[in-house]
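[Automated response] Your request has been received and processed.

Submitted sequence:
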Amino acid sequence: MGKLPANIDYYHSLETLPYLIASLCVEAQQALKGIDSYVVDQSRGRAHAVAGVPTHFTIPLWVIEKHSKDYQLWYVAHEIAHIIDFRTRGISDHSAVFHAILKRICPVSSLKFEVTYMKRAAGRGFTDKPNLEDLI
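Generated structure:
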């Protein structure tokens, strides 16, 4: 485990992330070589990178405690898609490139959560309006 940012409360004892990661496709699992993952008591997860190089990703505790496995798999796949995007382009956003990656690695039964997320994010001005038909 690398140096952890001081402003994040990490839950090291949870076994959920390795279980969820093992449920994803081989491409997603291989993308995580050298990448740490943490469950955090925060409002949102994030793929972290330094100078465009991914270092770790976080998943909020509420995702694990309050949501279905399909939702958990989407959330983990979403952050891993950012990791893959960082590794291939050196940046990551919610572009068509990112969504093509997510569509490859996310279980089909979980992709519906990306549609809901992108609609909310677009409504708050966090992202451009996505082409949602391309996701499903």
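Summary generated for your ticket: Residues 69-89 form the longest helix (21 residues). The chain is about 45% helix and 15% strand.
If you did not submit this request, please reply to this message.
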